[in-house]
């Protein structure tokens, strides 16, 4: 065994190498995805931090803009003794913003106020010393760019620093009265950018909307995360695998795997050439008798021959299987006929349009009931009846489990002579020395009407057997059936059960015969099912009981009541669904028509088909308001939107259906806590 060890060891090494390749590929791919996710998370943290810093700057600017203008004017005159204006900024002292310093440029004068240092100087001097503008032309260009800002912006200085500018409006003028500017150095930005970590080949670019404020502008971004203040970070395309350590590890690993693969192949070739031993001999030495043959191919051939001999299916077995399948097909056909007789067979056309299907649409059908007297062999008799058919006439016989009754369904393309079929059946009975009574049903032109033919055959044979039963087809009172169907549609389970119990009690009192009683049960079920389908309520096939299979009344009652309970639950569910649909329509209609002058509860009552009480009930449940409160709230929200676009108070009042401007102002203030003019002024800041 030792001399063959090298061969099998080579195979094992080769298998391990292949598995390690798969494991390495999966692990490296997962590590790659994790590094990208970590880079995205850290980049997002930088964006969130910068957004927070910009929000703080915005809050400082808003605080200064709300101060009285006289405090700014008195700041220089009192030579900074009047520093009351700075007290409002005390809440920001415990938080160091991104900006190292900020200053206020007041356009009414040429002075600027460096607030943290409480000093002032001329703006041109400050621009030269602090903002690195060396020429008058550069300063003039910067000055025009600054006073031309209509909203907050970021300006890049010649020395690479950033200037976050916020216009301030102290009066209702079109241009800003001053600017609050924060000086941000590139070092402070770089500190936050370095938080992302990793070993990136190219620097990260920081954008404010479409302007690059840090790093170099990239042509194509592999990652772009935009913050609330328009800040986004872009990583270059080359940085999709940022950690170089993984790349070095991958290269070394691939080199080792390639070398191992080459050595393994060489060892396998040498072992196969010099020390090869057939596998089947090794199996024999480990624990088993050798297979017959000289080599593996011969052994495989012997094994296959044994398998074929052992599992060969003889012609006799095939015939037995075919006979069993034919028997099952016949049983299935009998069950299908039972369903057709009870009216519960509703197969689609694509399933019944087969050549040998006795219930195929387009045929003519008739049912002949045979009531045998005396003992007889059922299976042989059913087979003999089926053999009476011809090329055009097909007969299917089904035994019903009570009163020795057989139902024969005749099917033909060209019409049926029922009395000719009865003559054939009578001759068969006489040949078998059997006495029988026959009931002939109506000829129908659809498989769905087979129950009508069956009912006529039952009445015919019942008249022969029970001449004193003239009202055999009056199964139940129509008034009771109408009440039952009404209770089912309303989902009233207890009332429906009582009505059904009354109908079944009437059927049992009028029909002592189990045969007629069972057909009456089937008639009740069919009436209920027809009503359900007319109301688009489908019943699962396993719930449709074949009543003729139950020759005990209590079993039939249980199945009928189970079907009744399911139908009531489905109608209740449909009622709940309609109520939800009405609620959704009501809310949508209000949101669509609330800006119409004539919109009122009466219109909503007519359109939605609901009473005023129901409308108020829905609104209190959905929006927790009355109709008037909800309508006023919608109109005030629309008024706020229109005022924000610059529309005047009068125009906004007319747009939201208020003819009186004073009443509109009163309602607006009650809803928002401020007048429309005050609301418009608050939007300017």
UniProtKB/TrEMBL annotation:
Domain HTH araC/xylS-type: 584-682
Transmembrane listed as a keyword: yes
SUPFAM superfamilies: Homeodomain-like
Keywords (A to Z) from UniProt: DNA-binding, Membrane, Transcription, Transcription regulation, Transmembrane, Transmembrane helix
Transmembrane segments: 7-28, 252-272
GO-annotated molecular function: DNA-binding transcription factor activity; sequence-specific DNA binding
Pfam (any one): HTH_18
InterPro entries reported in the protein's UniProt record: Homeodomain-like_sf, HTH_AraC
Name this protein carries in UniProt: AraC family transcriptional regulator
